Amino acid sequence: QAVVDFERLGEHAAAFQGHDVGFCCLGTTRAKAGANGFVRVDRDYVVQAAELARAGGCKHFVLQSSQGANAQSRFLYLRVKGEVENLVQAVGFDHCTILRPAVLLCKRQESRPMEWITQQFLGAVARVFPTAYSVPVEMVTRAMVACVLQPGEGKVKVLENGAIHELAKA
């Protein structure tokens, strides 16, 4: 494990050398970082990490994005997620897998009351409609590993929430 300073990511290029696969789940919130900080973390840092990974020999990059990602969206969150998907694809990996999970169900160390309420509600909905609106983070993790073990055909593969659930079960 290497600890890097994302403000000086280029100085840590050695940490990205010699890896066949790269996994990226980097992100923050607008509330925590502000609009500019959100863009810097969720787009700029991710793209720079992807470029360093590719330069270091990475062949398959796996990016956690978001359901509804769209570079043309009016909503900052979805627009930035769509932009980063496009930019990472343009880096030129042999394989690029993009996962677009719905609301992530997880336990957080920090307090986010509204997110907790949403997770409780969606957790109950998931008992009836398991792939509709949410996904446990453990399932996303299993799907990320599975897509590397079974890369399939094509240069770019986009997995929506339902496909994440299916792949995680395989």
From TrEMBL:
It comes from the Eukaryota. Residues 4-148 form the NAD(P)-binding domain. InterPro entries: NAD(P)-bd_dom, NAD(P)-bd_dom_sf. Gene3D superfamilies: NAD(P)-binding Rossmann-like Domain. GO terms for biological process: import into nucleus. One of its GO terms (cellular component) is cytoplasm. GO terms for molecular function: catalytic activity. Monomer. Forms homodimers during oxidative stress. Interacts (via N-terminus) with elongation factor EEF1A1 (via middle-region); the interaction is direct and competes with EEF1A1 binding to guanyl-nucleotide exchange factor EEF1B2, thereby inhibiting GDP for GTP exchange and reactivation of EEF1A1. Interacts with nuclear transport receptors XPO4, IPO5/RANBP5, IPO7, IPO9 and KPNB1 as well as GCN1L1/GCN1 and LRPPRC probably through their HEAT repeats. Binds NCOA5/CIA. This is Protein HTATIP2. It comes from Chloropsis hardwickii. The gene is Htatip2.
